[in-house]
Amino acid sequence: MKNMMKSLAILVVLTLGLTLNLAAQEDATDLAGAETEVATGDAGPAEAAQDVELKNANTKNAEEAEEDLTFSQKLKQKFIQGDPLWMTPVLLCLIIGMALSIERVVYLNLSTIDTNKFKQEIEDALKSGGVAAALEVARNTRGPIASIYYQGLSRADEGVDIVEKSIISYGGVQNGLLEKGMTWLQLFIALSPMLGFLGTVIGMIQAFEQIVKDGQVSPITVAGGIQVSLLTTVFGLISAIILQIFYNYITSKVDGIVNEMEEASISLVDMMLANKVTK
Fold first, then answer.
1. pTM for this model (two decimals)
2. pLDDT digit string (tens) for 196-218?
3. d(Cα 120, Cα 113) in Å, to the nearest integer?
4. What is the pLDDT of residues 176-196, one digit of tens each?
5. Cα–Cα distance between 224 and 19 in angstroms, integer?
6. Residues of the chain with pLDDT under 70
7. Rounded to an integer, what distance in angstroms lies between the CA atom of residue 44 and that of residue 29?
8. Cβ-Cβ contacts under 8 Å for 68 (sequence gap 6 or more)
9. Contact by Cβ (8 Å): 160, 269
10. Closest by CA position to 106, among listed 5, 2, 250
């Protein structure tokens, strides 16, 4: 758990560093554009016409360069356009949610074993070496099913009722371990689109404030403001969709392991009674 928290802290620091870098690039671009506009305003009519032609040529070159951008460069561009202030929380939700999802996927895959083969090994051990041999097999096998078997076999001399209670109690503990972190994953799934919608609403407010400031309804101002504000919603929905896919996979994996645990627990009691290793 400590290692996971350290990793998450490192991811947060890297994300904030990337956001500050993107914001600095955006400020530098805006400053360059403002300087160009000032220079155009101070020039004469002839020079102004040349500046307009130069600006149009630069715009055309920028559009051609935009078409040649890679996917990562386009993603970076959209991140800047959507305002890093509102895009960063969504990105953090995605990063932390992905970290939790990957940790759960790895844990659940390591917890999955060939249940039929394991039960056969336990039955063979009970027939050949008794409870001690079966305990050794359970001890050397990973996963919640093996842990439940170990707890049940270790109380074989206390009677079948105690064995069943031990299996049920320890099964609940293992179930809790399988679902560890799922609440946080649900939180980030719900939080990502809400943060995106929040950024969109604030972006729309800023767009209307700009309209009031200009004193007229400019299609460029309205369309540009709406485009930028909706980017946060798009990123929030993409983040939630990705995390939801992982959540459903993890949930189905947990349900499958729990069903195997319940079936294996019944088989353990039957094997112990059949081999007369409990009262």
1. 0.71
2. 888 888 888 877 887 788 777 77
3. 13
4. 999 999 999 999 999 999 998
5. 22
6. 1-68, 71, 221, 224, 277-279
7. 25
8. none
9. yes
10. 250
Judge whether 105 and 250 are in contact, CB under 8 Å.
yes
Residue 196 token pair: 């995106």
Q: What angle do CA 123, 257, 102 make, to 5 degrees?
A: 130
- Report how far apart, in Å, the C-alpha atoms of 179 and of each of 53, 108, 168, 215 are: 63, 10, 17, 56
For position 13, what pLDDT does the model report?
Answer: 45
Phi, psi at 17, each rounded to 5°: -60, -40
Q: How many CB atoms lie within 10 A of CB 244?
A: 16
Amino acid at 37: E
CB-based contact 272:119 (threshold 8 Å) = no
Instruction: Retrieve residue 209's tokens.
Output: 């404030």
Mind giving me the DSSP string for 170-221?
HHHHHHHHHTTTHHHHHHHHHHHHHHHHHHHHHHHHHHHHHHHHHTS--HHH
Closest CA to 236 of 188, 203, 204: 188
Query: Is 232 exposed, middle or buried, given 0-12, 13-18 or 19+ CB atoms closer than 10 A?
Result: buried
Number of neighbours of residue 140 by Cβ within 10 angstroms: 10
pLDDT of residue 3: 53
Give the whole-angstrom CA distance, residue 185 versus residue 242: 11
